[in-house]
Amino acid sequence: MSVILFLAFFLYCTSSALSTKDDETALLKINKQLGNPDILQSWVKGFDFCNAAEKMAFQHNWYIRCSSTGRVIDLYLQNTDFTVPFPNAICDLTELEFVGFYHSPWLYGSIPSCITQLYNLHQIVIVGTSLSGSVPSFYNHPNLTIINLSLNHLSGTIPSSFSTLPNLIQLDLSFNYLTGTIPPQLVHTSHTSYPQLVLANNSLTGELPRCYGWIDFGLIDLGNNQLSGDASFLFGKQKKSFAKIILANKEFEFDLSYVEFSDNLYGFDLSHNKIYGKVPDSFATASVLLDPNLSFNKLCGELPQGGSMGRFNAAVFANNTCLCGYPLPPCSASAPASSP
Ligand SMILES: *[C@@H]1O[C@H](CO)[C@@H](O)[C@H](O)[C@H]1NC(C)=O
Ligand SMILES: *[C@@H]1O[C@H](CO)[C@@H](O)[C@H](O)[C@H]1NC(C)=O
Ligand SMILES: *[C@@H]1O[C@H](CO)[C@@H](O)[C@H](O)[C@H]1NC(C)=O
Ligand SMILES: *[C@@H]1O[C@H](CO)[C@@H](O)[C@H](O)[C@H]1NC(C)=O
Ligand SMILES: *[C@@H]1O[C@H](CO)[C@@H](O)[C@H](O)[C@H]1NC(C)=O
C-alpha cells in the first residue's frame, strides 16, 4: 500500500507540466530575446519545460526547475555566447526563486530593474558577463539570501536598500567598477551560516561602518579598493566563525598592538596598508591561522614567538618599518629596540 502511495507521489511530482501559459510565453520570449540560440532550440511551443530539465540540464547549458504546482522557480543559463542585452522577459516568470547567469561574456546592457519585483527570489547569481549600469536596488525581499553579481561591469554605488533584506547572508559584488562608500548593514547575522561580504576589486572609498564589528563573518573580502581608516573591530577573541578577512588596500590605518586574533581565524590579508604598532601575542596562539599577510605596512618591534610562528615564513611580515625576530632576522642591538 505504502509503495503504491509512494509511486503515486513520485509520478505526481515528476510529471508536473507548466501550469500556466504565461510561464511558457515568458520562456519563449527569453529564447527570442537571446536570439534563438542553438542551445535553446528545444524551447518551442508545447515543449515540456518542467520535465525536460532533469535530462537535458547541464549538457545544454541551461536548467529549469518547476514547483510542484508547475511554475518555473529556477532558471539557470551558462556559457552562452550570444551578443544580446539581458533578456528582460525573465521578469515575467513571477514565481522565480533562483536566477543564475554564469559566464556569458557577450551579454551586455544593464540588469533590468524589473528584476527587483520578483518577490519570491532566494538567490540571484549573475557572474562573468559584460552587463553594465547600476546594481539593482533590491528592497524588502524577505527570502533573498544570496546576491552574487561578481565579475561584471557594474558601476555606481552599492544600494543602501540592501540593508532592508533581512535574510541576506551572502553578498558578492567583487570585480566591478563600483564607487562610493560601503553602506551599513549590507548582510546580517543568521542562524544557518556565517555571513559573507565580498566587495573586492572595485573603487570603493571611505571608512568601513563600525556596525560590521558586530557580525561574525565567515568571509569578508574588501581587498583592492581605496578604503581607509580603522577596521580593527573586525577582529576579536569573541569571534566564533572560521573566518577569513581580506583588507589588502592602501589606506587602512590602525594600531595592531591591541587587536586580538580569534582562535578560529584561519586567514587574513592586511598587506599594503598603513597599519602600525606591534604584532600581538594572540597572533602566535591563533591555532588554525593558515595564511596571514602583514607585509607592506608600518609595523615595528619583536615578533611574538612559539605557538604557530613556526608555520610562517618571512614573506608574511616583509616590508614593514622595523619588525624583527624569527622568521625575520633577530632583533640585535643595532636593530630598533624590541619591546620590554
Ligand atoms: C518566503 O519563504 C517562505 C518559506 O519558504 C514562504 O512561506 C513564503 O511564502 C516566502 N515569501 C515570499 C514573499 O516569497
Ligand atoms: C560568486 O560566484 C562566483 C562564480 O560562481 C564564485 O566563484 C564566488 O565564490 C561566488 N561568491 C561567493 C561569496 O560565494
Ligand atoms: C580589478 O582587477 C583587474 C584584473 O583582475 C584589474 O585590471 C583592475 O585594475 C582591478 N580594478 C581595481 C579597481 O582594482
Ligand atoms: C603578501 O602580500 C604581498 C603583496 O600583495 C605578496 O607579494 C606576498 O606574496 C604575500 N605573502 C604571502 C605570504 O602571502
Ligand atoms: C621589500 O623587502 C625586501 C627585503 O627586505 C626588499 O628587498 C625589497 O626591496 C622591499 N620592497 C619594497 C617595494 O620596498
Automatic annotation (TrEMBL):
Domain of life of the organism encoding this protein: Eukaryota
> Major location, coarse class?
other
**Coiled-coil blocks:** none
What span is annotated as the signal peptide, if there is one?
Answer: 1-19
Tell me which UniProt keywords the record has, alphabetically: Signal
Signal among keywords: yes
**Cellular location(s):** Cell envelope
A Pfam family this protein belongs to?
Answer: LRR_1
Name-wise, this protein is: Polygalacturonase inhibitor protein
